[in-house]
Amino acid sequence: MRAPLTSPPTPTGGEPIVQTSGGVTIYLHDETLWREFAKYGTEMIINRGGRYVHGINSY
């Protein structure tokens, strides 16, 4: 069973949102851009080359 994820308070000033669950930490950079995507229900950009998931995974 997965641990429930809760949204931390939204920071101001462009700081990344940080969330930890089950020993995994997730950083959301450019929160304003992601909120714009959320208005349309997607975070994917579809272009001539195919589909591109916006964002960078860094480990």
From TrEMBL:
One biological process term in Gene Ontology: positive regulation of DNA-templated transcription
Cell cycle as UniProt keyword: no
GO molecular function ontology, one term from the record: DNA binding
Coiled-coil ranges from the UniProt annotation: none
Keywords tagged on the record: DNA-binding, Nucleus, Transcription, Transcription regulation
InterPro entries: p53-like_TF_DNA-bd_sf, T-box_DNA-bd, T-box_sf
Protein name (database record): T-box domain-containing protein
